[in-house]
Amino acid sequence: MQINPNFSRLKESYLFSQVRERTAAYQKAHPEARLITLSIGDVTLPLGASVVAAMHGAADEMAKRETFKGYGPDRYCYGYESLLNALQARYARLGVSLKKEEIFVSDGAKSDCGNLSDLFSAENIALIPDPVYPAYYDANVMAGRKVVFARASAENGFLPMPQEGVRADLVYLCSPNNPTGAAYSKAQLQEWVDYANRTGALILYDAAYEAFVRDKELARSVYQTEGAKECAIEICSFSKTAGFTGVRCGYTVVPEALVRGGARLNRLWKRRQNTKFNGVSYITQTGAAAAFSEEGERDIAERLTYYRENADMISDCLRRLGIPFTGGKNSPYLWVRCPEGESSWDFFERMLSKANVVVMPGSGFGESGEGYFRITAFGRHGDTREACERMEKLLKKG
Ligand code: PLP
């Protein structure tokens, strides 16, 4: 018996586990320390009341013979119409018209970021931004694919653009980006879409943080550009807006017009899901649909405001310290230069041991992340304020 040899090409553990382990080891050695965690991008505010009420209602339906639901509807690959109608309406508000058959309800963006890899041969080359959410790289390495990088740096505003002459079949884009917080404008995204249509590449567009976009010229969806339905799949999530990190629900758009290698990817994805996935629970989908009700949207707006207040607090603190950073305006993440040329992990250790604040080492998101760290705005106000005070005390010069 042989295991998949590609696993030996991966790092020993996933970045987030590594940070958790080091933090736990520090806490064990210093039980008195009150650590503040602004590293892992999990939300802290609970589900909105309308979502909870809808989920209670759905649970009651499941308790009655007349309204009980088993497997989800086959027609839409287990997506319920109420949620698909709400998602169609969301896209319509962005000027994008989608059929229900083009929207696949998922158990979150991470699964699909990895699972979509099933559709493509190991011979394809994946182009992955550096730095970025590590799941894209790991999933492609597991699949035995060669990976090339689109480097993001202060010089290109952390927004790499297409480079002629670099062969790429699968192009991963994440906007607003995790970890840098940089987001593509519609015009910049149009360049990527034109590139993909010209070269035959496929764009896998991760829009998990689209709701954080404030500036009008920035894209909320790849389909806000011309020709994207012929070259792009979009992956999105309820995790960071409706607080579904523990509930688990997302959606992936695979347009019917999307053809690669002579195959309709919409049909292929449906075939793949029918074989390896059995849908998201009725209770969860009912809760997700309620996030689009008037009350649900109000709850989400409140949550966004709360997290943005954290981002503003951290931004003000960094400005006072004179430390360069990006993000925080159209994203829940702030991407910060480590002071005094420190490495990402050295700075992580210093913040942990001297300020008892846990940040995310930038190098964990890719080579180009070395010398940076990421702070999340998903914490509680009190913790964020205190973390800023501790950071200021530690890093203030003179
Ligand atoms: N995509 C990006 C860029 C993320 O940062 C995350 C989570 O942090 C995910 C996807 C995963 O989202 P989900 O909770 O929907 O699986």
Concise synopsis of the structure shown:
This protein has 398 residues and is an alpha/beta fold. It has helices spanning 15-29, 49-62, 81-93, 109-115, 135-142, 186-199, 265-276, 282-290, 294-321, 344-355, 381-395, and strands at 36-37, 103-106, 125-130, 146-151, 170-174, 202-206, 232-237, 250-253, 259-260, 263-264, 325-327, 333-337, 357-358, 360-361, 372-376.
Could you tell me the mean pLDDT? 96
What molecules are bound to this protein?
Answer: pyridoxal-5'-phosphate
Helix content: 25-40%
Rg value: 21 Å
Q: Could you list the spans in which at least 5 consecutive residues all have pLDDT below 50?
A: none
Output the helix-strand order: HEHHEHEHEEHEEEEEHHHEEHEEEH
Beta-strand fraction estimate: 5-15%
Number of helices: 11
The secondary structure category is: alpha/beta
Most strands sheet:
7 strands, mixed
Q: Name the shape in a single word.
A: globular
Number of strands: 15
Strand order of the largest sheet: 2-8-7-6-5-3-4
C-alpha termini separation: 62 Å
